[in-house]
Every structure is written in C-alpha cells, then in structure tokens.
Amino acid sequence: MGNLISVSGEISKNAKGEVVGKGDMRAQTRQCIENLKHLLEAGGATLENVVKVTVYLTDKENLKAVHEVSAEYFKEKYPASTLVEMNRLQIETV
User: Fold this and answer.
1) Are 70 and 30 in contact (CB under 8 A)?
2) For residue 31, which of 4, 12, 51, 70 is within the disulfide window of CB 3.0 to 4.6 Å?
C-alpha cells in the first residue's frame, strides 16, 4: 500500500499569506490549485495523483470559471469532484 496525502481547507492565499484574486474566481481557483500542487510536490506527489476534490462556492454561477481553470491543471485523469454551494462562507484563521 502506498502513501496517502490528505489536503483540506485550501484557500486562495499566496506564500506571504495575502489573498489572491479577490473578486476573480479564476485567479482564486488558480491560486488554490497552485497551493495544492506545491503541497503535493512536498509529499512526493503530483496533481495526477489527486483522486477527489471538493469545491465550496457561495455562488454556483462561478462553477464555469472553476471548471475552466481546473481543466488547465487536470488534463487526462480528472479527479472525482463534489461541488457544494453555500449561501455564506467565512474563513477564519487561527
């Protein structure tokens, strides 16, 4: 059995802790996937190893933007995915 890497709670902050793409779903999605990519690389994996993603949106109208950017990263083996629309998301850092 191989190693398993679990990543959760990824948000669109860069390495300096700054929010990227405020008001721009494509930029936010791109930053989240880039963050995921770096975390996976640190664990010896790539985006090709991702089997499941869950996306939380406050407006399902942003789904197209999320899919377009995701398709740039997940080429041949698109992971299973779940989309959850919530009327409000609040990010808290501790």
Assistant:
1) no
2) 12
CA-to-CA distance for 26 and 33, rounded, in angstroms?
Answer: 11
Q: What is the pLDDT of residue 43?
A: 93
According to the CATH classification, is domain 1-94 in 3.40.630.30? Answer: no
Per-residue pLDDT tens over the stretch 12-45: 999 999 999 999 999 999 999 999 999 999 999 9
Alpha helices in 1-94 (DSSP H): 25-42, 63-73
Please give the angle made by the CA atoms of 72, 75 and 77, to the nearest 5 degrees.
140
Count, in order, helices (H) and strands (E) of the chain. Answer: 2, 2
**What are the boundaries of each domain within the chain?**
1-94
